[in-house]
Amino acid sequence: MDRKPxxxxxxxxxxxxxxxxxSSTNGVKGAACCGFSILAQGxxxxxxxxxxxxxxxxxxxxxxxxxxxxxxxxxxxLDAIIMDGKNLAVGAVSCIKNIxxxxxxxxxxxxxxxxxxxxxxxxxxxxxxMNIPRVSTDELVTDHSIKEWEEYQKYTQSVTNLFNSEKVHxxxxxxxxxxxxNVSCATSTGGITNKMVGRVGDSPIIGSGGYADNFVxxxxxxxxxxxxxKVTLARLVLLHMEQGKSPRDASDQALDYMKNKVHGxxxxxxxxxxxxxxxxxxxxxxxxxxxxxxxxxxxxxxxEQFQESLHNxx
Length: 314
Ligand code: GLY
What we know:
Layout: E1 6-14, H1 18-40, H2 45-57, E2 78-84, E3 89-96, H3 102-112, E4 117-119, H4 120-129, H5 137-140, H6 143-152, H7 160-163, E5 172-177, E6 183-189, E7 210-213, E8 217-223, H8 225-231, H9 233-242, H10 247-262, E9 266-272, E10 277-281, E11 285-292, E12 295-299, E13 306-309, H11 310-313
Parallel strand pairs: 3-4
Antiparallel strand pairs: 1-5, 1-11, 2-3, 2-6, 5-6, 7-8, 8-9, 9-10, 11-12, 12-13
Helix pairs in contact: 1-2, 2-3, 8-10, 9-10
Bound molecules: glycine.
């Protein structure tokens, strides 16, 4: 098969403050270009989504790897998933500490264990065995995440609505289809500010934070994790696509369902088995970028879509 490759990335659906707007937009554009350069050379969608998410994990503007938010104890606990639509192979990690690139570690779980997800101490012990580099928590923490955490310490623990607000910072992800027609997804996050120690969100949960199946397409989600899990958002989008909806209509229908049924907001990126794609959200903002053919598309605010020639972007 010689299919036109496509990649789409997101930097999280939330109320991105103006001072992070430019760095968020530049970050997703850079990540999309990095992933697409792999696809353009005939590389796999798995390789492309991992590389794109690593760029976002290394960028302090985003809540994943460097820049991750802090839990109630002021610590960093990270979740990630990567999935291969060719054979539904999946690797996920949750509640891991001191790892700068959880997405690469999730891929090690996929490739080097008989399991689909490792969590907590056991996961960190396996990371050491795999020689995944250990970084100090201080290296992952930013001034922004400390400030946000200090703000949240002012509130009590009965903050369901606060967690389901758009201020809590959220997640990165990528979906891609390669020239062989294989689709993949990758999602990585620090979760939500002031979450309970041990809380696991939607991101590493198969069918919630992401899903990929060559039969339909691939999805990576972002937003209020407890709501996303309740509606298995990624799989719900693919269900609508399976039933004939475009990625855009399927995404809107699933996000509306989440909003109406469980009062949850979020966003997602989707690519179909034919290379159609969408970036949709019900939050104030979501930084996203996609490369399709010779064009780079990107946006931040609802209804916004800019485009430029890929040639100018690189
Ligand atoms: N969507 C990220 C989280 O809720 O953990």
